[in-house]
Design goal:
This protein is α+β, with helices and mostly antiparallel strands. 49% of the residues lie in helices and 20% in strands. The protein has 21 helices and 17 strands. It has a 6-stranded mixed sheet, sandwiched between helices. It is globular and about 80 Å long.
Length: 567
């Protein structure tokens, strides 16, 4: 476990890489490919743009899961990327609905091998080693074709952990030096080789269920949480759609996939499928579980009944003859900093390095920051200034020109360009950039005045629209004081207008009329928060979270969980 602990620390610190033996590709070509996939799968394939991806599912007519996969769209074909055990099922299920359409499915298991790079430095690796002359453009895509030593490879954005991640598909016919070059690139960034065991622990920390282990044909898609990312409620018909829509409209999932944190001293793992009991009654079943060195405790994915899946809830679960005081957790278990946050960390480290006369380190940090966040204006400016101080004026100028393209209102981009051109002795262009900076500054002042005027007009228009809606809701309440939508609507409009005291009685009435109306709890909690009635807000969110967890209402659940954590 100590070796896994070191690998996970490296993964979360810089990143890691591995060769993957379990993934496969199904290629789908033909004029009617998008329409066939649209009719058979749960997500909106027609709306998917080339270079991008989505998570998708195949269901049977009762909405039970038959397969889960990532779908990538290229210019004239699709790739399904999935575990090898699902390939035959996916092909069979799609072919069963393939009649006269111009569609060809190709099993490409034997045609290539997958490598993965995961972690904070994964985008840096891709930007430096696999992107084209415009790394920011490549990193904005989920799928593109690149090359390593002249060999075409396919790069797919795919996190197998809680961190940023990419897959690199190398054709089987590629000469050995291609994978050798890949490994050299990995090592140049000091990335850690990751074992299958380390990747499995990282998968669990990320709360990512695996088909055939955590979820299967025994489960409704609405029980798994996948409907939040893999189901479109707007696309129209697909196999299983009627059941999914009926559950969303009229009922709540009977069980839900959640995380469980075990107390210190618990066993490091349990057999998958172990039943969870309370007072002798089965309330759930453990799925994948392991000891997490990152979190310092045993963690598990588990299906729990709707009464017991509330995040933050403490449960006394009887498992394998022992009782454990566990905590129910909203997945994922571990959430790393965002790309933007990590770019900011690199920027601040670069400033510290530069102040300590470590110019090379500062430059390296700033280049990495810009790969993580191509819109980080501070990193552009700092890198340009440092380069100008070591007489790398051409690159400094190029950076400021990029910043000016990204933000045409950047005064500092043109001010720095003026300085850099003056350093090069190009007084004419320096004066042009200085004038441009002054022009932008004056335009900003004028725009701010226009913005303030427009804001006032928008506020007046919104106020008029809100008052019209309130008149409508009041008219309904005069007829029926218990109307749910009118009470909630009037209360939420008052919240939007900042009239929190007026909102409270209507939102409380909405909850009285329908205690399971979870969005009313969110609006009521916001009103209490704004009035600094924090105990009331706390209790409102807590009650709303409990109800939303039982109903599977993930949007208000996550928002209330976030607000409760801040309180």
């Amino acid at each position: 476990m100590s070796d896994i602990s070191q690998q996970l620390a490296a993964l979360h610190g810089k990143g890691g890489f591995a060769r993957l033996d379990d993934l496969a590709v199904i290629e789908i070509r033909g004029r009617d490919a998008a329409q066939l996939l649209q009719a058979r799968t749960t997500n909106d394939v027609v709306a998917l743009q080339p270079g991008h991806s989505l998570i998708n599912c195949l269901l049977d007519r009762t909405a039970h899961l038959q397969a889960v996969f990532a779908l990538y769209r290229f210019s004239d074909y699709f790739w399904i990327v999935t575990e090898r055990q699902q390939v035959s099922t996916i092909i069979e299920q799609i072919e069963a609905y393939h009649f006269r359409e111009d569609v060809t499915l190709i099993d490409r298991i034997a045609d290539g091998d997958f490598w993965t790079v995961q972690g904070p430095q994964a985008p840096v690796f891709v930007g430096r080693s696999l992107a084209d002359e415009n790394p920011a453009r490549s990193l904005a895509l989920d799928a593109f074709v690149s090359s390593v030593d002249g060999q075409a490879v396919t790069v797919l954005k795919r996190s197998l952990t809680s961190e940023d991640g990419y897959l690199i598909w190398v054709p089987s016919a590629a000469p050995p030096h291609v994978t050798e070059s890949l490994n050299q690139h990995f090592q140049s960034l000091q990335l850690q080789a990751l074992s299958d065991q380390a990747l499995e622990v990282a998968r669990l920390e990320a709360g990512l269920p695996k088909y055939g282990l955590d979820i299967s044909l025994d489960d409704l898609v609405t029980d798994t949480g996948l409907e939040q990312v893999a189901v479109s409620y707007d696309k129209g018909c697909y196999v299983g759609q009627e059941v999914v829509a009926r559950i969303k409209t009229y009922s709540a999932p009977r069980k839900g996939l959640v995380g469980i944190r075990f107390p210190e001293g618990s066993p490091r793992s349990f057999p998958v499928g172990t039943k969870c009991l309370i007072a002798g009654h089965v309330v759930g079943e453990l799925k994948s579980n392991t000891f997490s060195p990152t979190l310092g405790c045993t963690i598990a994915l588990a299906f729990l009944t709707r009464e017991h899946r509330e995040p933050g809830q403490k449960l006394s679960l009887e498992i394998a003859g022992q009782t454990y005081e566990v905590a129910v957790v909203l997945l994922p278990f571990y959430t790393p900093p965002s790309r933007g946050e990590r770019a900011r960390q690199l920027y601040e480290q670069a400033l510290a390095d530069f102040a300590a006369d470590r110019e090379s380190a500062a430059i390296e940090q700033l280049r990495a920051a810009l790969l993580l966040d191509p819109c980080c204006a501070d990193a552009y400016e700092a890198l340009g200034v440092i380069l100008s101080k070591i007489d790398e004026l051409d690159e400094a100028i190029e950076l400021m020109q990029k910043l000016a393209q990204l933000d045409e209102d950047s005064v500092m981009a043109h001010t720095n360009l003026s300085v850099f051109y003056m350093q090069k002795g190009d007084k004419e262009r320096a004066e042009e950039e200085k004038a441009q900076a002054m022009s932008i500054q004056m335009r900003k002042i004028a725009q701010e005045a226009v913005r303030e005027q427009k804001q006032q007009e928008d506020d007046q228009r919104r106020r008029a629209e809100a008052e019209e809606r309130m008149r409508m809701f009041r008219a309904v309440l005069e007829i029926d004081a218990d109307d749910l939508l009118a009470n909630y609507g009037l209360g939420s409009v008052h919240v939007d207008l900042g009239e929190y005291e007026q909102a409270i009685p209507f939102l409380q009435k909405a909850i009285e009329v329908k205690p399971t109306h979870t969005v009313a709890y969110l609006a009521l909690g916001r009103a209490f928060e704004a009035l600094e009635k924090l105990p009331e807000a706390f209790e409102t969110y807590k009650e709303g979270i409990s109800i939303a967890a039982k109903r599977g209402d993930m949007m208000p659940l996550k928002e209330m969980q976030s607000r409760l954590a801040q309180l």
